[in-house]
Structures are given as C-alpha cells and as structure tokens.
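Figure 2 data, in text form.
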Amino acid sequence: MAVIVAAPYAVRSHHAALVAAAAMVYQGAGLICHQRPERSFHLAGVQLPVCGRCLGLYLSGALGAVIAWFASRGGTVGHGRLALFLASIPTALTVSLEFIGLIHPTNLVRALSALPLGAAAAWIFVTSLRAEEESRPATYARSHPS
C-alpha cells in the first residue's frame, strides 16, 4: 500500500531514481489493473497506479493480513470458501451491474465494495499459512528458541 500511495509523489518529485522506481510500479500494476484514469483515485494531481476497486482490494488485503496474523493464533481456515463467496458478493454485484449498464458507481463505491473480498482473501491466506506452520513437526530451532 505504501508503494501504491507513494508512486504519484515519486512521479512529481522529478528525481530521476524516484521517477524510474514509480514507472516500474505503474508498469507492474498495469499487468493486473486496467488503470483507467476515470476509475482511479489521484494524489498530488497524479493517478494512482491502480484503479479504485484494486485499491480497495489491496488496502483491505493488507489490513486483513495484519489482523489475521495477530488474531488467528491456533485457528483453522474453517469455512473459507463460504466466507470468500460471501465477501465477493459486493464486488461481483458492482462489476456485473456496471457491465450491463444499470449503475455507474463512483471510485469510492468501487473501492468500498472490494473491501470485504480483499480482507477475506487475506484472512484465509494468512490463516492457512499459520495452520500449515503449526501442523509441521517442530524443528530444533523452533522447539529451542535462542
């Protein structure tokens, strides 16, 4: 998230190294996101490297991962598929309704509708990693902390 938010400021800095780094961020983000200006937020008069929906996914994914890391001790993934399905409904609805022309949501609505999906995906991912880590046999380093 820091890189996404810093990229527009790096572009405006006119410092060659920062502009080059920002260009790499925009290029990388362009492999995943359409980057349409009218569907993107702007900072310092410069478009963010991702659209509003992607920003919502990444923001909630980052926060969901951090919360899951601290809150999911010893837990299991549980009903991950159901949670992911339910969390995807706001995003799926806005994408579908927008595609068929029934709604024209703002960037804020796009970002907000993506929040549950990003948070749920990150929660499931981190919880799965923690469950995998806890299911491995203890090694000497893990069972005898220094």
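Caption note: The radius of gyration is 19 Å.
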